[in-house]
Amino acid sequence: MSGHDHHHGHDHSELSETQLRVRALETVLTEKGYVDPAALDLLIETYEKKVGPRNGARVVAKAWADPAYRTRLIKDATPAIGELGYAGRQGEHIIALENTPKLHNMVVCTLCSCYPWPVLGLPPVWYKSAPYRSRAVADPRGVLADFGVTLPKDTKIRVWDSTAEIRYLVIPIRPASTDGWSEENLASLVTRDSMIGAGLPKQSADLK
Amino acid sequence: MNGGQDLGGTHGHGPVEPEPNEPVFHAEWEKRAFALTLAMGMPGGWNIDMGRFARENRPPAEYLSMSYYQIWFAALEKMLEERGLVARDEIDAGRSLRPPKPVKRTLSPGDVAKVLYRGGPTERETNTQAAFKLGDRVRAKTINPVTHTRLPRYVRGHVGTIERVIGCHVFPDSNASSAGENPQWLYTVRFDGRELWGLGGDPSVEVSVDAWEPYLLPAG
After folding, report:
1. What is the DSSP pairing of strand B205-212 with strand A103-108?
2. What is the CATH number of domain A52-207?
3. Residues 146-165 of B with CB under 8 A from A
4. How many CB pairs under 8 A join A and B?
5. Of A4, A133, A123, nearest to B12 (Cα)?
6. Which pTM was predicted?
7. Cα dist. B74→A12, A13, A115, B79 in Å?
């Protein structure tokens, strides 16, 4: 699959054609009463403004700060994540994967684009792209290098291919020198990519 | 199906290119195509597995050259036409040329938050016993259905270990057709990287898939 239209060789007229066709279909579906454009606006607004990786960052920060929450999250992530109000579509069954110095977890969907929407929002283009989907399972260290990440040789890498309706959330290693930090400050260290296992969280020095 | 979507382990796609500060959508039409697809699930009457099959079931060259939301939109058009909800001449004309077909439900603005929050859980009650338990060695079957399946080619024929008995879940291979949910036990199966990729593979890598019982055989 190519990325998106902006830099993958779809010329302007082709893009316009898609635009016109989507608009035409929306008109037809609206005229027939199958869709309400106000509902479409709300769907878009939900995933543009409300549901995104800040949700997951709150989950991770709470797991770092609150050992009892961490235990609940590892044991059964769906209700633990639900405690923070995050649930539903593409996150009906979530499993949390904890990284350690000896084990790095990485999540992919080789067959399509499965991704834990309630905690991470909609997936970025690279996650849905052929390069990531093809290589994550065969050469995860090479993929991490594309993200500028090098792990110690003796760190085991575990790749989770989301082939069913189970969604995976990676809990990265808590950065050093963050003792006593508030959950809010901890959450600011948690990047989207670190919750997929394609990156690492920011370090405390990065915030200064 | 062994289509363009089954990408695990294929070569030649180049490096992963993360986009800094990536927006959620890259064009206005992507937003509308996304929302139309979600909103039409209800009146359209298809399920997630039918949707996935509609996206992947096209020539691999086409699949690989289309952008993500182009594929979504093409699948939406296809499913609408197949069910007689919209005809091609209506999309070409940009207006409805015939009365609507009766549909069970549509998505109202007031229901959006509720419907998204509820989602579509796939776990089902069962009276059956799981055939495999934690630690069992299993072989992924060699199958090559032309229809929808969620067993990727790169694990077929390979031996792994049951790492988790997840529960009984809707079986996509059935659900994508009109055969219904046909729930089956679902497992996380872990494979050694070198079992999948040969001795040249990275020995520090393990890969798992979530596999339904009909995909698996005991492997002693």
Report:
1. unpaired
2. 3.90.330.10
3. 150-152, 154
4. 290
5. A133
6. 0.96
7. 19, 18, 21, 9
Nearest neighbour of A91 by CB, restricted to B24, B96, B119: B119
The answer to whether residues B190 and B161 touch, using CB atoms and an 8 Å cutoff, is yes
Low-confidence ranges of chain B (pLDDT < 50): none
Q: Which residue among A2, A13, A16, A112 is the active-site one?
A: A112
Q: Which fold has domain B137-218?
A: SH3 type barrels. (2.30.30)
Is B112–A161 a contact, with Cβ atoms under 8 angstroms apart? no
Q: What angle do CA A160, B150, A165 make, to 5 degrees?
A: 60
Instruction: State yes or no: is A194 an active-site residue.
Output: no
pLDDT tens sequence across A8-63: 444 455 558 999 999 999 999 999 999 999 999 999 999 999 999 999 999 999 99
Tokens of A38: 């106000």
Q: For the domain B28-118, what is the CATH code? A: 1.10.472.20
Give A155's contacts in chain B (Cβ within 8 Å): 204
Please write the tens of the pLDDT for every residue from B133-152: 999 999 999 999 999 999 99
Residue extents of the structural domains in chain A: 9-48, 52-207
